[in-house]
Design a protein that fits this description.
By secondary structure, the protein is an alpha+beta fold. The chain has one helix and five strands; from the N terminus they run ββββαβ.
Length: 94
């Protein structure tokens, strides 16, 4: 299952062309998706079709139960200047 989020940059919140849509999903690595140590994949997606905008990137380092959120937030901040805490969850894709 993939979670879809939208981030509206604070200074340009009213301009929909500045919004960043992205998905977060646990994927199979050495461990099955959704389990301890399975990587988390993050990818920007298009609106309204939610098609991937390559490249999809796996979070770096070991993804544990407590570190997954931290890795995800750091990646989003460093790569796209997205603050995950300020993003809005808009739904799931299967």
């Amino acid at each position: 299952m993939q979670s879809i989020y939208v981030f509206k940059p604070p200074k340009t919140e009213k301009f929909t062309n500045t919004w960043i849509y992205y998905r977060v999903a646990s994927v199979d690595g050495e461990e099955p998706a959704g389990t301890l140590y399975a990587p988390i994949e993050i990818c920007r997606v298009t609106w309204p079709t939610f098609k991937d905008m390559p490249p999809a990137t796996n979070t770096p380092g070991i993804t544990g139960l407590e570190s997954a959120y931290e890795h995800q937030c750091r990646f989003l901040r460093e790569q796209w200047a997205v603050e995950h805490e300020e993003s809005v969850f808009i739904g799931f894709l299967q």
